[in-house]
Amino acid sequence: MNISGQYDGEMTAPTNGLGFLDLRIDVDKRYANSPVMKRVSGDFYQVNKINVPGSPPKVTRVYRESWIVNEPKVKKLNGKIEITGKVTFWKGIHPANTLKITMAPPKDGVTPTCIATFTRAGGQSAVYNCTKKSDAFRTLNLEIDVCKSVNADPLLPSWDTSAHPIKPAALPPRVLTIEEAYREAGVVVNIRHKQSIVDDSNPDFGTWSDAELHNAMETYFSQIGGPWPKWEMWGLLAGTYEDDSIGGIMFDIAAAFDGAGKAPERQGFAVFRKHEWFNDLSKGKPANDAQAASMRQFLYTWVHEAGHAFNFLHSWDKNRPDALSWMNYDWRYDSTNGPDSFWSHFEFRFDDEELVHLRHGNRSAVIMGGDPWGSGGHLEAPPGAEHLAAPPGAMASVEGEQPVELLVRSKEFFEFMEPVSIELRLRNLFTDLPVKLDTRLSPEYGGVVIYIRRPDGRILEYAPVMCKLSPRTRNS
Questions:
Q1: What angle do CA 367, 298, 339 make, to 5 degrees?
Q2: Own/partner long-range contacts of 327-330 (Cβ < 8 Å, ≥24 apart)
Q3: How many CB atoms lie within 10 A of CB 290?
Q4: H or E segment at 46?
Q5: Model confidence over 268-311: pLDDT tens digits?
Q6: How many CA within 13 A on the CB side of residue 75?
C-alpha cells in the first residue's frame, strides 16, 4: 500500500479542534500511469463551532490559506515513516515554518493515519492528526448536460489507447475516460450522469455564441447558485459554435464581452459535437483508424477544456511549446517536430508543471470560481523586468528572405478606461506561392500573445477572455 494521497484531520495542539488541515502527500506511486511529483501541500481551515440548545454543535470550516513543501525528505526512522521539509506559503508574509509528518508503514486493510507538525521559527508548533481520505489529491463533481440536436451515443469519450496505430511504442494499454484521465492526474472526477437536455431545436437557432453558452449554464447548471468557489464544474455537449472551426471552448470568463461571463469564473466549458473532428465518432469499438482518431480527439477535447477550468493555460502560453500535454495542440507540436509527432509521443497526461499546479497549487488558483482565469500563469513581470515578459527567443532576429509579413498597428498609448483596438494583419510576400498559416490572429486562438506596458513600467501579458480550440487549415 502506498502512502501518497489526500489526508485530513483536526488540530490537536496548541488548541484542540481550533483548526482543520487538508493534506496532500505525493512522494510515492499512488495509481497506475500516474507520475510522482515529490511534493507535499495542504490547506488550512479555521473551525467554528456554534452551540445550539438542545442540538449537537454546528460546525463550520472557513478556508484560510494554502502552502507547499517542494523538496520533502522521506525516510524510515524507528519503524516509522518520517517526511520533513520547509513550508512555503502561496500568499502573505509568514515566519519560517518546517513540517514533520510521521506515520506507521502502510498495511493492507488498515487506513493510513499521520501526525503533521508545523513548527515556526522560535519553537511554536501546531499539530494535526490526519486520516487518509483518498489516493487522489482533490475531488470534484462534473455535471454534463446535452443539447437535443446531439443527444445520441457516444455522449462521452471512452478511448482504448491501443485502438490507433500512431502512438508511443511503450504506451500502456488501457481505456481512458474523462474520469480515468483525471484520476491518473490525481483528481477524482465524479460525473453526474443524469443529464439535462438543452432544447436547441428551434430552426432559427443554428449556432452558439459565448453569451448563449453562459446563459445556458445559468439556466441548467444545478450548482450555479450558492457560495463559490467550490469543486463543481459544468460541461455542455453542444452542436456548433458560431465559429464552426471551434471544437471546444472554456467560455466562463468574467469580462464584458458580448454579454458573456461574470464572476465567479472557470465554472463551465463546452464541446461541439458537430465539429468535423467528430464526424467519424461511432458507438462501440472503432471499426477503423478514422473512427479511432475521432474518439481520441473527442477525449482530448473534453479533458483539454476541463483543464482550462482548472486554470490551465495552453502549453505555449507557459513557454513550453514542445510539452506533450493535454494542454498543447497536436498541430502546433507537429509544425516544429514533424507530422504525427504529437500523437506518436503523447502519453495522455499533463506535463509535470501542470500536475504540480493541479495537485498542489494554491487552492484559490485551482478551484472553480476561485482566482480569475489566467491567475498563477506567470503572466505578470515586475517593473524594470521587461526581459521576463516575453518567452526566451520570442523576439529573436530572423535571417534570410521571409515569406510572410505580420503588421501590428495601434495608438502609442491609451487613456484610462479607453477601449483598446489593435490591428493585426498577415500578408503573403510570395505572390506566386500559397503559404499555409494559422490566420486566426485573435489571441483566444493561442497563436498571438500581446503584452501591455502599464504607466508604472510593469509589463502584463494579455489573457484573452476565451480559450478556443480549433485546428489551423488556412492558405494565404
A1: 110
A2: 327/351, 327/354, 329/446, 329/469, 329/471
A3: 14
A4: strand 39-50
A5: 999 999 999 999 999 989 999 999 999 999 999 999 999 999 99
A6: 6
Spatial CA neighbour of 202 closest among 148, 269, 155? 148
Q: Is the pLDDT of residue 444 over 50?
A: yes
Task: Take residue 438 and report the three cell numbers written for it.
Answer: 494559422
**C-alpha to C-alpha distance for 178 and 399, rounded to whole angstroms:** 45
* Cα–Cα distance, 394 to 389 (Å, whole number): 10
**How many CA within 13 A on the CB side of residue 281?**
22
Global pTM exceeds 0.70:
yes
Radius of gyration of the chain from its Cα atoms, rounded to whole angstroms: 24
Q: Which domains does the chain have, with CATH numbers?
A: 5-134 (2.40.160), 138-366 (3.40.390.10)
Nearest to 475 by CA among 442, 426, 410: 426
> Within a 10 A sphere around the Cβ of 378, how many other Cβ atoms?
12
Average pLDDT rounded to a whole number, residues 23-31: 96
How many residues in the chain? Answer: 476
Would you say 220 and 277 are in contact if contact means Cβ atoms under 8 Å apart? no
Residue-wise pLDDT for 238-279, tens only, equals 999 999 999 999 998 765 344 455 678 999 999 999 999 999
Closest residue by Cα to residue 172 from 182, 156, 190, 184 = 184
Which three three-digit cell numbers place residue 127? 499539530
The cell for 76 is: 524510515
Per-residue pLDDT, averaged over 317-338, amounts to: 94
Cα distances (Å, whole numbers) of residue 128 to 12, 48, 63, 73, 428: 6, 16, 16, 19, 64
